Amino acid sequence: MEKNDLLPAALLNKLEAYCARGEHCPSQIRRKIILEGGSEEMAEQIIEQLKKEGFINTTRFCQAYVHDKVLYQTWGRFKIRMMLQALELPEKDIADAILAIDLNQYNKNLTKLAEAQRAKTREQKIRYLLQRGFTYEDINSIEF
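The chain above was modelled as a monomer; its predicted structure follows.
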């Protein structure tokens, strides 16, 4: 069976398994459906079904995304917000997830990144931290 021959039911089953393995947002699922040969209309129907069955939840996705980016990639709030907005997620879910950031871990990440840039000038450190998504306010709150 080729990609274009997938029936909506078979595609739905495949996407349910995909969503069961990890958190995904509607735009990621839509992109996957289109790559499998589905139409926009089919994508919307499948996404609604996945939402109804609890496989897709934008609030849960935002919380998991923010947690992982702070803990594992040591990103700042600004970069996280921009990436979530690029995924076309509701602003309320984004804002709530950003507010739930563990500030101790966040500040520990910021301090660790700043210390790793010890040999650089202050301006280079600031530029680096801004690229990681930290704001001037965040950066000025630590001493380095």
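The longest helix spans residues 8-21.
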